[in-house]
Amino acid sequence: xxxxxxxxxxxxxxxxxxxxxxxxxxxxxxxxxxxxxxxxxxxxxxxxxxxxxxxxxxxxxxxxxxxxxxxxxxxxxxxxxxxxxxxxxxxxxxxxxxxxxxxxxxxxxxxxxxxxxxxxxxxxxxxxxxxxxxxxxxxxxxxxxxxxxxxxxxxxxxxxxxxxxxxxxxxxxxxxxxxxxxxxxxxxxxxxxxxxxxxxxxxxx
Amino acid sequence: xxxxxxxxxxxxxxxxxxxxxxxxxxxxxxxxxxxxxxxxxxxxxxxxxxxxxxxxxxxxxxxxxxxxxxxxxxxxxxxxxxxxxxxxxxxxxxxxxxxxxxxxxxxxxxxxxxxxxxxxxxxxxxxxxxxxxxxxxxxxxxxxxxxxxxxxxxxxxxxxxxxxxxxxxxxxxxxxxxxxxxxxxxxxxxxxxxxxxxxxxxxxx
DNA sequence: TAAAAGTTTAACTGTTTGGTTAATCTAAAA
DNA sequence: TTTTAGATTAACCAAACAGTTAAACTTTTA
Lengths: 205, 205
Known about the structure:
homodimer, mainly alpha, Tetracycline Repressor, domain 2, DNA-binding
């Protein structure tokens, strides 16, 4: 009794595409059915409701965005290496999923309850606390300039994520086609860690 | 024959609130009517369609976000002062309109045509080019470390805007109430310019 | 092969939604 | 006061929408 995974997967793929492009409220079940090349009733056969289907896509997206951060900040490397690794890995993830940040941020804004629910059992918070401590240690030992750990974390995330969230605006404002935008991102991957580390470099005595 | 501006304004205020909270596709004309305390037909009496009403709100929001940047980058102050002024003014605007960035970015993503249309006649691009030249001059004169002007501009905007776009996520992740979030922003206003200027400080010979 | 179980579809349903209409209300103009 | 023009509303409409149903089709099983 082999389950036909193909249809289910086609639906997931179609739903991901449509939801991430149009958001929960802008997406139509018919759009998803068309994209998957199936009858609309099949959506309800496999995933009972629009909301159930949406939750699967949202969780998958949130997972992809947040777990990467958790993984890298969690291990035991020195702070400067960790910052470099975080920028590199994170921007790679975002390059392959450029529309994820705006989608996730918009849907969290619509219903913050989603993300609260998501965090339960993911132990993001303790992992983050450890990273905060590592930053505070570096400040106390004068390895970096004084900075509040949450501010630094937000600085790093901002610099990585924002260009993707703002990509349609950027492409218009700077008059870039997709190819040029990718060049911009590639240059950014190289230069961002040193920008951040330069900002943190302590004064020489 | 005095025109009753009050109803029209009440509709605009209600529309702004609802559209910015729920987005174009999530907003309901009935919600806006309820928020304004009037009959739904009045919306169509004053502003023919949902789309017309939305465009007014969207343009107003885009104006508020973009013109501030244009004004500050446009004048003739030195680069370091300009960066400081940009952070300060921009974060003030955002503090008073914290949900504008996510709204505008989401709606541009839905329909990039909107922003292309918006730019016409606003001469954002030439103003931006002048700012790029100023940055390039500072690089050439070794006043700041080498950096591509668009990268620097995106760095500044990212660091200012992202915390607001991500505020519901931040508040959950860092477990902040509104008051604590505001404290975070106030601290950020003080420290952000020096963070950026430190990153740009050239090596001493 | 027969029947049972799982998959897929066309057609349908009830509700929500943007938008319209015709009637009523209000206030200024004559 | 009567008329007239704009402001406001309740009731309505057609299209869009998420979700259902019953029948047909396909595959597995006995």
